[in-house]
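agent> Task received from the user: take the single chain below, predict its 3D structure, and emit structure tokens. No templates, no multimer pairing.
agent> Plan: (1) validate residues, (2) run structure prediction, (3) serialize to tokens, (4) report one or two observations.
agent> Step 1 OK, no nonstandard residues flagged.
tool_call: predict_structure(input=
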Amino acid sequence: MKTLILTTDKKDIETAARIIREGGLVAFPTETVYGLGADALNADAVARVYEAKGRPSDNPMIVHIARASDIGQLTRMLSPDIVSLIDNFWPGPLTLVVKKKPSVPDRTTGGLDTVAVRLPDSGPAIDLINMAGCPIAAPSANLSGSPSPTRAKDVIADLDGKVDAIIVGDDCRVGIESTVLDLTGEVPTILRPGIITAESIEAALGKEVVYDKSLTEAAKHVQADPADGVSESDFKPKSPGMKYKHYAPKADMLVVEGQRDKVIAEIERLKTLNERLGNKVGVILFEERAFIEAAHDFFAKLRDMDSEGVDMILAGALSDTDGVGFAVMNRMLKSAGYNITKV
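)
tool_result: status=success, residues=343
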């Protein structure tokens, strides 16, 4: 397949929108990461997304809309909480999980009776959805399991020749995927942490927000089952990013946690040791409270190290007591396959 490389000019966006309407696949920039889009209401088009990414078909997709009112195309569920969240956080990196209408294909939702919806804060994304005239289902525009792409060159490296078109826009300004909030239970529950934190959501709703059990177990740095007694292969995720093996670079990766001076010393020791063994070593070490910078740069650093042929990545853990730090650590632990050492 020949992949069209398009710009964010109106004429090129119109070309991309036509491809979406005709059941094709288009990678496009958002404020979080690049997405791989298809008509969310076209089951055959959505199936092509799974095929292009090598993505498990039980992994639900996030459906992107161009106006808040378009959520009515996807759900009959409209509560005061939903209205409050839309007013406070849309457009932006917050995805709401709600009960779906029958018109939303099971392929789009991973066979679930819920649908994940968000309104992106990105001009090219909004233009594409508007011109396509349909909601767009769009997981991250990468091969399944690899680091999410925050730059057009990362998308091209993974998907050139596998999709119909790639829109080349600016680097994504957030750098990690949206917060996913499940509103179908008694208590609003974060299924995937992001730059919009639990504290911010609680302030908007005036009520408690909890983390899914899989996230609280991961915070203990253990690879626990997200559902009691359910294996990884049988687990049906309610949100993208809930399975353990995710965001992984090609290199082996180790996360080092502890007091800052001890972390730096241990990373230097391990770097020296591995280099003596002939390994090429990459280091990811953010400033202690540079959480926004870490969110923006983390995936790009993994991608750069893949490009450089690094054999081993040593990463300094961030504080997970901060909401954004918690979100970055969620990605860091999964990238490392929960390979962590404490000093």
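agent> Step 4: summary for the user.
The longest strand covers residues 94-99.
agent> Done.
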